[in-house]
Amino acid sequence: MEYIILDIARMLRDSGIRVCVQEIKDCIKALTLIDKNELDKSCFCHIVNATMIKTEWGTNYILWLVERFFEPDEEITGNRFHELSRQVSSSTGEGLGTAGQGLPVNLMIEAVLKKDVAMIYAIVKSMSLNLSLLMENREKALENFKQRSGWFEVTNAVENSLREGQITAQDYDSAQESLNEWITLLKEEIEAQLVKNMSREYLTEVMKKNNPRSIKFLDANSSQIAQISREVEKLGRKLAIKKGRRWKPGKKGRINLNLSTKKAIQTGGILLDLVKMQPKPSKPDLWLLCDISNSVRRFSYFMLMFIYIIQKRFANIRSFIFVDMLLEVTEYFKEQEWDKALNCISALKGFNLTGYSHYGNVLHQFDDTYRAHLNHKTTVLILGDAKNNRNQLDGTEVLTNIKESSAALYWLNPMNEDLWYSGDCVMEKYTKECSGAYQCSNLEQLERFVADIII
Amino acid sequence: MKLGFTAKGDLIRLMKLEQLKQGLKQEGYIADDSTALILQYSLLLNKPLLIEGPAGAGKTELAKVWSKYLDRNLIRLQCYEGIDESKALYEWNYQKQLLYIQSQSSDIKTWFNTSKSIYSEEFLLERPLLKAITSKKASVLLIDEIDKSDEEFESFLLEILSDWQISIPETGTIVAASIPSAILTSNNTRNLSNALRRRCLYLYLDYPNEQRELDILKLHFPTLKKTLGQQTVTFVRSLRLEKLKKHPSISEVIDWVTILDHMGIEELSNVLIIDTLNILLKFKEDCEKIIQKLNQKDWFSGIYNP
């Protein structure tokens, strides 16, 4: 057991989750307290999450790992498989075949129409679909599995039934959902087999992708977006409650001897009350310029959300969006809830004339209209991939002015640093004119930036 | 690689867990397997337990019930923005010290004795944390809504949570007379530091599923009508799936059912929900949003005839 826990801890660390020695010790200790006969999968996953991962999504995350790497789940398929085998044997006189031979098509059509996902799962599992060891392309593998599992045959049969009026439109929609579920099952099967074929390196890579902290903003799916949103919200709150370095008299905190002595004079030299000093919350002064062209839209979404949360608390936060024109959205955000505001942002007018980013135009517009309002406390953040679409005017000349008029000018780019100097990306020029340029493609990098630079 | 899970062992574990769950149920709390399991291990490992989850999911209640189940005193520290050691750990009774000094002779020779005695137990105001570790009988220490406190306060808790001791500069280190079962709750509004997480076991406590919520209602209202109970949990579940400023907590649902019970209601209706909605929802915008939804015929019937 110790070996397995150490192995899991190493994999968790590789996937970006911090696990310390004490936590591994706790996990092993907790597991040794359980009688071996008492240990089941759910109990194991709860203990690993409670002692090592410690997140809302940790139990499912470790369950995923256990099922893929340690013990593929046979609980769900077990009984259904025998039931299925019986049904198939009685209808065809044969067992379940592989590679498209002896496919129980009628049974599959029935399962799809009834939306019996468990049955579809059992069918897929029982087909023993094997991925070629050399197969790395997921799309190709999926087509191959769809072919071999009879997905196309069932889809055609469902289409024909609709055309011939044997099923209603409602049944058809329900069947489509089942077919999508089928694809998901095949994808999971491919993933599990890739893990088996390519072992640990691949698993670590997949684990990284499933870790909300290290997944790229641009690659996240809808459920991961929801998780990242919650984390970004927390990050915004963290910044909003961060205490500054200035102190003010308060009810608690450090004793200020000077002020206490002065106050004691009022009571004939007796120190009746002590004057205490407490840290004053800092007021971040941030201006955010967000590129919301298609290539970086999702990344900007998170940053605007982050800014929105701190904007609710501080007056000195201003936000702008742009594609080829600059538009201030500070007031727009103040008027409504963030999710509504972000979802309706594309309905705003005045920031997108051509649909192509034009950093030159935007930076000049900012310099002309807003630079006079900057002061030595203001931090300006520009978010974008710096792809200027080969426009001659790139705004480098005004970036220096903006930097000099503010406390600092930072550029956050969601693209990998290797790509900053290729194609129509002019990041190389901008980097020289900024106080700092950082890659910020996932939550971990955003957290690090906020902790190191803004706070 | 096999982990060696067995289905046979599951039953034995369930029996033990069942005992704990039953004990908690007798105290008025219906816990699921993971909650009971992790509570059990926090006690066995002498580790604080960090419980995260949405507001109103029953985190504080769990700590209260846990203390009753263990027959221990509950010592509660409610965190808020700006809480510091003087409110959490100890404070010197400054005014009393001042009076004591003034009552003593101003002779310099007595200064040594005076300075020693003003830092004695007599002048120490005990706060919850100190109370919890100096208590001879082990207690349950509830540090509630830790996410509302500042990061500095979190760091301050590290010593007590890992070594069960407190260092007071004037008197030295106080080692715990008994180790309390510590429960920290957080509404997950901000990330707690890794250092604090490292020292705790972790449990995420979400709103209960429909079956568990129904069990909770049955526990509080043994004569609850089946239809009303089912409708209530289904309706509340659908409210929690909506994007609202504040979702109804379990205690608010209990309040709502108390009112419905008092009114002798046997089945929910559109009008009844609208009339009593402000027991569940506490923001005008949320009420308006749900009333608007309730007025859409399909939404209402969809809940009861899914």
CATH homologous superfamily heading of the largest domain in chain B: P-loop containing nucleotide triphosphate hydrolases
The low-confidence runs of chain A, each spanning 5 or more residues with pLDDT under 50, are 75-81, 91-100
* Order of adjacent strands in the largest pleated sheet of chain B: 2-5-8-1-9
CATH class of the largest domain in chain B: Alpha Beta
Shape of chain A: globular
Give me the Rg of chain A, rounded: 29 Å
Outline type of chain B: elongated
* Class derived from helix and strand content of chain A: alpha/beta
H and E string of chain B:
HHEHEHEHHEHEHEEEHEHHHHHH
Classify the oligomer: heterodimer
Q: In CATH terms, what is the architecture of the largest domain in chain B? A: 3-Layer(aba) Sandwich
Q: Provide the structure class of chain B.
A: alpha/beta
Largest interface: A-B, 52 and 47 residues
Count of individual beta strands of chain B: 9
Flag low-confidence runs of chain B: 1-15
CATH third-tier fold name of the largest domain in chain B: Rossmann fold
Distance between the termini of chain A: 43 Å
Mean of residue pLDDT values of chain A: 78
Adjacency order of strands in the biggest sheet of chain A: 6-5-4-7-8-9
Offer a quick outline of the entry.
The complex is a heterodimer of chains A (455) and B (306). With 455 residues, chain A is α/β, with parallel strands linked by helices.
Q: What features would you describe in this structure?
A:
The complex is a heterodimer of chains A (455) and B (306). Chain A has 455 residues and is of the alpha/beta class. Chain A has 19 helices and 9 strands. Chain A is globular. Chain B has 306 residues and is of the alpha/beta class. Chain B has 2 domains: 161 residues, Rossmann fold (3-Layer(aba) Sandwich), CATH 3.40.50; 85 residues. Helices cover 52% and strands 12% of the residues of chain B. Chain B is built from 15 helices and 9 strands. In chain B, strand 6 and strand 7 form a beta hairpin. In chain B, helix 1 crosses helix 2. The longest helix of chain B is centred in the N-terminal third of the chain and has 20 residues. The radius of gyration of chain B is 25 Å and the shape is elongated. The chains are: A alpha/beta (455), B alpha/beta (306). At the A-B interface, helix 2, helix 3, helix 4 and helix 11 of A face helix 1, helix 2, helix 5, helix 9 and strand 9 of B.
